[in-house]
Amino acid sequence: MQIDSKLIKVAAPDITEVEVDAVREVLLSGNYVSGPKVEEFETRFADWLGVDHAVAVNSGTAALHIALEAIGVKKNDEVVVPPITFFATVFSVLYLGARPVFADIDSADMCLAPSEVRKVITRRTKAILPVHLFGASAKMDEFTELSRKHKIPIVEDCAQAHGTEFDGAKVGGFGAAAAFSFFATKHMTTGEGGIITTNDPHIAEQCRTIRNHGLSGRDEHVRLGFNNRLTEIAAAIGLVQLAKLDRLNAKRIENSEYLRQNLHDLAWAVLPASKSNVKHTYFWCPISVDPAHRKTIDDLKAHLTKYGIGFRHRYKEPLYKQPVLKKMGLDYSKLRLPNAEQMAGRIIGLPNHPNLSRHELDKIIEVLKMF
Ligand SMILES: *Cc1c(COP(=O)(O)O)cnc(C)c1O
Q: Which domains does the chain have, with CATH numbers?
């Protein structure tokens, strides 16, 4: 096979002249901060998701931090988190002086396992933070039940799951609040950005105050706040992106399913099973090498690199091994979560973004068949 020098990128934002025109309009208007575009974006996002309130902020990390702060997580509280996710999930807990308590994942969906969360709940547990990893969904029926029984709020991390559904309902409306990210590689982007969603008017109000210097009115600072506002420029991009999100997702899913159909009978390939009650939106198209096979994930990475095919390879260790935790005086040296330890580093994400051509998808398949 001919080695093509053109890299097939693992992710690429879908930006057209429509976004460019939207940005131009805002720039020329002279109105850049917290105006009509942000308000319209919040209303449209809440409508699209099917929740009452959305509060736009300048990153997914800020959305998580503010959501936890708004539901009242404080110093020395505990928040249950998964060990396999982007570390921002854990940082949002650390910012508040609370303690991240790691519970193991379910090997099938790679998300936080409700049965493992149950084991680590204490009197100090103030929130449970499931992450809908790679575009899958955590088991929200069990989490909802757990939350009701123990009276502990759920905050969903939906940064990788815009449009993912569990039992026919979009994730982001199951808990007390949820956080989405609009970072450049996510299902939709505003460059940098994020949004908090909730059905609780009090939580929404607190989030609005916290993101804007703790202000009530113009000059009264009623609580600790930050500057986490989304700009009008970013919101204008977001409005265009949101209008085509369902179409982009459909393409992302179609591409991922095409790859999966053509790869599932390769002897070395392990693909996570799809579930009938989950609409997976494939932030990643995950694949791993059967541990019984003589070749390894490093061999696969070298092979893809040789043929110019991009991939993702992250979360190589369970997050409780990250050095920052020890530096902050948190000791997880005795913690071993077997499913997380087993899965960490073993999965890569294949290119599956909406703008891949059939030719590029076929090339990915051909290269993987040669492995
Ligand atoms: C991207 C991401 C975040 C953080 O979002 P930013 O917008 O980059 O701050 C949080 N959690 C998960 C799971 C993510 O993938």
A: 17-243 (3.40.640.10), 245-370 (3.90.1150.10)
